[in-house]
Amino acid sequence: MTDSPQGTEPTSAPTTEYVRMAEALLFAASEPLDEESIAARLPDDADVAAVLAQLVADYTPRGINLVQVAGKWQFRTAADLRHLLERHISQVRRMSRAAVETLAIVAYHQPVTRADIEDIRGVSLSKGSLEVLLEAGWVIPKGRRKTPGKPVLYATSDTFLEHFGLESMTDLPGLDELKATGMLQREPPMPTALEQASGEGQEGDEDDSDLDEDSSEDSGAETSDSVVPIKPRG
User: Which of 98, 107, 130, 199 is least buried, going by the fewest C-beta atoms within 10 A?
Assistant: First the structure.
């Protein structure tokens, strides 16, 4: 009679244990984890990709899903159930139109300098537009351009990807998609160079549209055209 190999266990046993270990790590983590961080905590023979795939499958039909955002993994409320939480944690943060335009320019043209943003928008960039994005952590400094004066370069961050549910910058909607949603038709056209020189078309643009949430609410001048509501992540 042939003896069976000593210490042999069913293939599914360690896999199940590794899935449990990865699940515990992801639940306890305060920040999303990349595969390298997860692999460092699992036994050397663990197939991290297979473990994560199993967790994704296990949680797909549940109220919490395991998702990959910006190259990292985290548990999030299922997309179709976010409306249930919004009733309890709804907290609307409002950004001025100028700040939204600035964020779009950084996202699509990064890395850019303050002067680049002003050239694309066609108007001077007030301090608040960029600072509110830096404070939110959506835009970060990315070194300096090797030109006279060495201006600071700005780009979007991983926090930007995580907040908007993007795996990478390639997931940003293209021009055709933006046109299809009507987003490119909502805002009034940028003032022409002649209008800028004469001072027309700038009234109420930068100084008024860059008011922070408190001042815009106090003034009573807040409208759906000048601010864009941004809901917190699910």
Answer: 199
